[in-house]
């Protein structure tokens, strides 16, 4: 296992310690619950936005806590849903009179933890809503999922609900916006290699030297098929061929296009894919009005990429443009 | 070779096309010279800042063109210095009455291209200065270098000269600042895997399943030694043990700490390293006042990381804090 790691069991806490030390003025770290939260949260005048998931998908979600995005993130161990009590304690710490919105990528373990935490929080009189994200068009059900999986498209939901909450929107309105963004967002990914969870120490699956997994999940779940590695052009055709007809996106649409790296693929290759996808969308009369290239939702060191489209309207575009400040940054 | 690529010979142009398409309002792309430049450059009221190097180190340098950073970047092919005429044409296109500053990481091929381009530009009456960056403490001379190599510490030079130029500083002053930043910046890296240039199609070197290369170069150059992979704590000791005594950084110093990913290492591991290094520096009385964690100067998909320290003073800190807007971004 070729990783920078001490005791694999301490991988997540040591990562979270690093995030907190890099952001002493803006973030707080509560080790008992793996919680990274805004230093200025909760605020009585805004809905608190929370997401948790397994670790191993960074920057999602612990590195996107901050102004205009999440108020808190409470991850589980690598590829494991957060324990229900982590979520429950997080909700209590981020309790606001305006309510708490829990974002959940659609995996069975995550849903269970968040549903139970919601129930327990409501029993204490806390106003809580949940919103499930399921942008991955690859497969209907999956290894850890009933229904579609939630993957990198989740970023757009976080960004829009985060902006709306920052502006003071009520909980119902924030939920409406999040559901709307989720409803116009579609993704699919391709893996070129597997990945190795630190505590497991060996790859999650095997992929031959000339193979790729089309429609891979972010925990290495099987996709639509195993295929021979083809050119970048053909890969983009495969991704657009699955994503575009699904909503469908159509000639005349304005979209956000994201090429998300799965962890081990350099950004040079992501921009190469972006350029190809941009051109092929233009050929279909679809205009890329907003561009996202980089790592948003990863699968440890997996080599691979996913493509996400969001159909834009004035409301979504305005919320995507709103300022935000998070730990994951260049400067 | 597991990459997203079409014809390997078109890897760099296709990447640059993607960068240009993602930034239609702020960047211009001149395919003849691999040039990515600010759409508003050159400006008569500011020194133009240019860097070029081999490709394969993205986001350096083509993705850090923009306000407060570079005015233009003219890379060569993967791991190959830009041809002299690319640099020369770039200087002509970015000619400003206030002058042009050429930043060059210290590699023999790059120095040759930039020195010749400078000479030819001066013969045409263009005011040009060059500044060589050599922050890597690993080895004195290297495969492609006389003297020390320039690696990720280069980011801090770009940031500070970019900010100074944006404020209208004269060429001499911009050079003074860049030389000062370079003089207080030190780096060293460790590779866990090799990398594969697209046109070569096979790894640049071989590294055993339990081996790491201590002091690796960003083109896979040998470092100080090949060693058995150890814990993250021990790796940080090794890096700090080389970097701290070199300047030296001492108790009472305020520093910027960068943990830079070499391309294939997930940001979770980088934050883990950051947390460890932060604590070990505090133990030595050195205060981390500014934090940089992510990919700044990579080596294709190499798994690995480098650590950079910059000794801060008020001037450097102010320039690092100045706003900047580049293609490489989250939102």
From TrEMBL, chains A, B:
Q: Broadest EC class?
A: transferase
Single GO term (MF)? phosphoenolpyruvate-glycerone phosphotransferase activity
InterPro entries membership: DhaK_1, DhaK_dom, Dihydroxyacetone_Kinase
Keywords of the record, alphabetical order, are:
Kinase, Transferase
EC numbers listed for it are 2.7.1.121
What positions does the domain DhaK occupy?
A: 7-329
Q: What is this protein called?
A: Dihydroxyacetone kinase subunit DhaK
What lineage does the source organism belong to? Bacteria, Bacillati, Actinomycetota, Actinomycetes, Micrococcales
User: Corresponding gene?
Assistant: dhaK
């Amino acid at each position: 296992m070729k990783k920078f790691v001490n005791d694999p069991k301490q991988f997540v806490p040591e990562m979270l310690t690093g995030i907190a030390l890099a952001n002493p003025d803006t973030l707080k770290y509560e080790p008992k619950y793996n919680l990274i939260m805004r230093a200025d949260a909760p605020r009585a005048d805004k809905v608190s936005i929370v997401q948790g998931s397994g670790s191993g998908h960074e920057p999602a979600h612990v590195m996107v806590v901050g102004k205009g995005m999440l108020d808190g993130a409470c991850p589980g161990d690598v590829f494991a849903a957060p324990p229900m009590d982590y979520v429950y304690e997080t909700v209590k710490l981020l309790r606001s009179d305006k309510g708490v919105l829990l974002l959940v990528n659609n995996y069975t373990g995550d849903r269970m933890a968040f549903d139970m935490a919601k129930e327990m929080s409501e029993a204490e009189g806390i106003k809580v809503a949940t919103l499930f994200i399921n942008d991955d068009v690859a497969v209907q059900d999956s290894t850890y999922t009933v229904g579609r999986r939630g993957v990198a498209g989740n970023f757009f939901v976080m960004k829009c609900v985060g902006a709306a909450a920052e502006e003071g929107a009520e909980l119902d309105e924030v939920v409406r916006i999040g559901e709307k963004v989720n409803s116009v967002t579609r993704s699919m990914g391709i893996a070129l290699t597997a990945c190795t969870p630190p505590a497991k120490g060996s790859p999650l699956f095997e992929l031959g030297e000339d193979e790729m997994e089309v429609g891979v999940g972010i925990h290495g779940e099987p996709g639509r098929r195993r295929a021979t590695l083809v050119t970048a052009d053909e890969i983009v055709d495969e991704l657009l061929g699955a994503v575009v007809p699904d909503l469908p996106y159509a000639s005349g649409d304005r979209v956000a296009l994201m090429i998300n790296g799965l962890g081990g693929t350099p950004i040079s290759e992501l921009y190469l894919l972006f350029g190809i996808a941009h051109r092929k969308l233009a050929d279909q009369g679809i205009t890329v009005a907003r561009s996202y290239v980089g790592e948003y939702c990863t699968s440890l060191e997996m080599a691979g990429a996913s493509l996400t489209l969001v159909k834009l309207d004035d409301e979504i575009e305005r919320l995507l443009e709103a300022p935000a400040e998070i730990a994951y940054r260049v400067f």
